[in-house]
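User: two proteins, same treatment. go.

Assistant:
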Amino acid sequence: HLRYVHELAPELPLGLLRDTLDADPVAVAEDLHLASYNPSDRALSSRPGIIGDLHAAGVAVNVWTVDTPARWKALDALGVDGIITNRPTELGGWSSGRVS
């Protein structure tokens, strides 16, 4: 579906949600013309180094579903671009109160 969307509207940013990491997320991102690769927190925890690889390829990393401040802090330190949560108000407060 993402390939078809890209053919129809190549200007649209595309993101892929993944419960498990692909063997080569960068290759998948390049093949599908992704703006973001969005793994589950559990999947990303198995290979956090992939964040740097995806960033080097110009692909954002948004992780889901993360609901604890301790994990938000850890993911922020790893350099993720976004966090998907069931607690958006709390994440917003945490985010605005952190020291960059």
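Protein 2:
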Amino acid sequence: MAHVITTACIDVKDGACVPVCPVDCIYEGGRTLYIHPDECIDCGVCVSACPTQAIFEESRLPSELAHFTAINREFFGVEVSGLDSPGGADGKRVACDHPAIARIIPIAVRAAA
């Protein structure tokens, strides 16, 4: 079971979770961070480090955020980032995001409206 990054990280990307991850499975996309579900060892250290409370254990995701399980998994596929399973983020940044994230109106635009 993996941990999942959700809505509260979009356009924030605080990154406090990244250095505490013992297996380096948190990757940076354009607008949010993503946890590689096959690399995550389910230790939960990232949850306590996240100041925006954006990370959940997959089995504890609120129902309205359940779709983020697929978003985190699909981000690594050839259809989105093409990262596959690199075996650790090692500072890798990808300019793209999952299409579902890309469709969300940026915080700055929402605040101005």
